[in-house]
Amino acid sequence: MKDVYVGVVGLGNVGSGTLSILAANADQIALKLGFRLRVAAVCSRSVADKTLPDGLDGALRTSEWREVVAHPDVDIVAELVGGTTVAREIIDGATANGKSIVTANKELMALCGADIWDRAIKAKINLAMEASVCGGIPIHAVLREGISGDRIVAIAGILNGTSNYILTEMERSGESFERILAEAQALGYAEADPSADVDGYDARSKLAILAALAFGERITPSDIFVEGIRRITPQDFDYAHQLGHTIRLVCGASQTERGLILSVRPALIRQSTILASVQTAYNAVWVKGQFGADTFYYGRGAGTNPTGVAVVSDLMRVAREIRGGSPERVSPFAHERLGEYEPVSIAFQRRPYYLRFRVDDRPGIIAELAGILASKQISLEAVLQLPSETKHDLPFVITVEPSSEQAIRDAVAQMNRLTFLREPPLALPMEPPL
After folding, report:
1. Is the pLDDT of residue 321 over 60?
2. What is the pLDDT of residue 392?
3. Which of 157, 223, 275, 405 is deepest in the core (most CB within 10 A)?
């Protein structure tokens, strides 16, 4: 059977890993496909300085992506540059030239992936994006095909390895967020500007894609409630442990009577749950189905080789479809057509909550806070106070019975006017057992 040719645009960590795997695993890939997957072109702004793996010497080297998408031998374009501007131009260019597309671009796929797929259908090409979420976990394939016979009712996951590394290292060492962030940057886990990771935006893009796959809704990332981890302290872990919990950046999507509720936020989860055991830069996704009940998926969420494997696997799948001439392609979003999503506010969600305060100590503080909570129909469950060396910056915690997010927000807004608070209260939901 005739070989399939690939053009790779972007030679960063993911692109370099993809090329290395294509070269080192070429014979095994050929045995699985029945034909060879060959690299016809590579593109990078610094391509002249790159050393390509053995066996790829005959590939076109160029700093101009248009040469790749227009290359007559290229069957599949791998877009591995990231972002939403040039990457979109590359994908549009590949589509216009009748090239199938493999991408690892979570941000672009979350923002306009459904529209890109619609254009791909009209152009009679294929689109694959497994590497865009949880690079080392084939979660797309699971939702798209593996458990497609089920009806998904909820997803919860740890989708950002950088934030998970910071939180689990804070928990292990007792060091501050700032100290562990600097360590993560030195190790290459965090970017010089870590905002996308620690403020939850990277995870939000990934959740938008998974929610579209699981629920068949066209999700807009800006409709997802997002809150980052910058305010978490080692003391929060101490208090969480007192309650039998830990803290993770949890990405959640659940069907309710009102509709689909989505969020990315730090939350308390029980130490006995499987998500609590996810450490360092690993990712995990828990899926609850109406018929198949609970399934769990765990692995490296990023990295040169894990993400490269996901890209190469997509290239193999698309190559099979090209050579097999399959007329009925499975949508990368698992549904023939996505519904128009009308967001349901997280304000309707009900959870127990953890409220952490830092105060200048004086008599009557608990009574005043309890009065505000009572005025919002919020019932106290417990008050925790670990030993402290100072009364001028005293931390303590109040946990409350299940309450609506809106009631908690209203209470916190009223508390913010209290003169004894050193900072606004930190409110974290306490998630039910997963």
Report:
1. yes
2. 87
3. 157
Per-residue model confidence (pLDDT) at position 123: 92
Count CB neighbours of 261 within 10 A.
21
C-alpha–C-alpha distance, residues 47 and 412, integer Å? 53
C-alpha triplet 397, 430, 167: angle, nearest 5°: 80
Q: Which of 130, 61, 116, 62 is nearest to 87 (CA)?
A: 116
Element (H, E) at 429: strand 426-429
Please provide the average confidence, as pLDDT, over all residues in the chain: 93
Counting Cβ atoms within 10 Å, is residue 308 exposed (0-12), middle (13-18) or buried (19+)?
buried
Domain 4-136+304-339 has CATH 3.40.50.720: yes
* CATH number belonging to the domain at 139-300, selected among 3.30.360.10, 3.40.50.920, 3.40.50.1110, 3.40.50.720: 3.30.360.10
pTM: 0.93
For the chain, give every domain's residue range.
Answer: 4-136+304-339, 139-300, 349-429
Residue 409, judged by CB atoms within 10 A of its CB (0-12, 13-18, 19+), counts as middle
Q: Is residue 285 within a helix (H) or strand (E), and if so which, with residue range?
A: strand 282-289
Distance CA 381, CA 358 (A): 19
Q: What is the pLDDT of residue 387?
A: 83
Q: What span, in angstroms and rounded, lies between the C-alpha atoms of 48 and 179?
A: 38
User: For 55-59, which contacts have Cβ atoms below 8 Å and span 24 or more sequence positions?
Assistant: 55/23, 55/26, 56/19, 56/22, 56/23
Extract the tokens encoding 281: 């830069």
Decide: helix, strand or coil at residue 295.
strand
User: Residues 82, 66: contact at Cβ < 8 Å?
Assistant: no
Q: Confirm whether 4-136+304-339 and 349-429 share one CATH topology.
A: no
Return the active site residues. 206
Which pLDDT belongs to residue 329?
A: 64
- pLDDT (0 to 100) of residue 328: 55
pLDDT band at 52 (very low <50, low <70, confident <90, very high): confident
Residues 6+ positions from 382 with CB-CB distance below 8 Å? 243, 398, 399
Q: Would you state the structure tokens that stand for residue 51, as one six-digit string?
A: 């050393």
